[in-house]
Amino acid sequence: MEAEATKVVIAGAGFAGTEAAQALSALVRGRNVQITMVSDRSYHLFTPLLYQVASGLANPYHVIQPVRGWAVRKRIAFLEATVNTVDIQRKAIETDRGVLNYDFLVLCLGTETNDFGIPGVSEKALFLKKLEDGDAIRNRMLRCFEAASLPATPESERRRLLSTVIVGGGSSGVELAGTIADYFGVLDEYYKGIDTDRSTRVSLIEAEGKLVPGRGDSISETCLRVLRRKGVDVRFNAKVASVDADGIRLRDVTIITTDTVVWDRRHKTEQGHCRPVRGWKRKQGRKTGCRQAA
User: Fold this and answer.
1) Structural domains of the chain ordered from first start
2) pLDDT tens sequence across 149-166
């Protein structure tokens, strides 16, 4: 009688999950090993281009790749499900589609956007993490342009509606700020009642003293030069105090009135992703976050 296959479960279909699946598939070819990928979405999202969806440069379907067809060609089973709990002792993961037993488990469930506990961020700001986030940012800006184009809209309200603030001067924040500035120029052709040069504003808020921290000074300086040429208001050493319906408040008491705040600060990873624990549970209300079980 043939021995039971060794079961390998890979949780997550992001960059780490797909790379692990591809490497393991090649490594165990010809052996009695069953690889199963589990993800709450049936596609791989190319997050480095998500900013292009937000700024109207790309169709949402241009930045995703279906996982199932690719997995089948690699002889990998795929289950579209949300991982709720991992029981390390029983070697089982519980999903909303049932229980999967494993011999080896690879957790690649990604990160969460870090709001640093700042009031109003999770309630009022838009994030740039998931596919629907790109759509949400673009749709918010279009709704603001529609409202600002109404003849009865006061100039002060028009300026608030046409102001976009991006928090986080990393790679995606810099790219998003530049492409939104370009996008406003495109929208100028469709909203003749709006003077985009005078009424629109794109602000980029960075808590440190340079853009794309961790990169060389020449890259940071080039990014700054290009953004300022596009008219982006770049602010360094600016710490956010809160976000509310009126806009964003900085710790130096500066208030930037806006209807669109995009939060693109660094992400956080829970310890449960990184080392064996007695148990693991999905954080309530989050699909990608996790925490160590009590």
Assistant:
1) 6-111+269-292 (3.50.50.60), 121-266 (3.50.50.100)
2) 999 999 999 999 999 999
